Amino acid sequence: MKELKSITxxxxxxxxxxxxxxxxxxxxxxxxxxMKKEDIDDLIKAIEDVTSKIHNCPICGILTEDEICPIxxxxxxxxxxCIVVSYxxxxxxxxxxxxxxxxxxxxxxxxxxxxxxxxxxxKINELIERIKKEGIKEIVIATNPSIEGETTALYLSxxxxxxxxxxxxxxxxxxxxxQLDYADSLTLKRSFExxxxxxxxxx
Length: 203
Ligand SMILES: [Zn+2]
Description:
Layout: H1 5-14, H2 22-34, H3 37-53, E1 55-56, E2 63-64, H4 70-73, E3 81-85, H5 89-97, E4 103-106, H6 124-134, E5 138-141, H7 147-159, E6 166-169, H8 185-193, E7 196-199
Parallel strand pairs: 3-4, 3-5, 5-6
Antiparallel strand pairs: 1-2, 6-7
Helix pairs in contact: 1-2, 5-8
The protein binds zinc ion.
């Protein structure tokens, strides 16, 4: 049978999703042919919406559909304590534990000599500006418990050490080499509560 080019193209596009192999992608392509027209239209619209409406918050980097994310815009959140994460998706883990009412800052990566990621590639200067402008008093570094995450945390604590803020690092209970977004909420809650202090704010 002659190869169906549109199926091949769709299968190739779908196989770019994480954990979707060629076989699964092909099954998905054929399944689409059996779907109702309105379901397909909904799917196309949802993909369009996700790619056109979602962007990084210009202040903290969280993914949002609003001009400024609801956390930065909130008047009821404590803007003096800021959790610093590597990636926007890590914020979801902290929001799920429900006992953090501060704000966030996404570095948009982690230092890595292997991948050629340098301090200038991360949103570190933006963080320093925010500390100065927004009156942030405590920084909780919540980069991943991996070599890159630890390197980033150390670098950050060094860069921020002369600022008059408290700096701590979460870590307790998180497996070395693990990923923040895979940590269960109880582990994450404990790791936040048992954060170790790098430096205390001086008065
Ligand atoms: Zn924000």
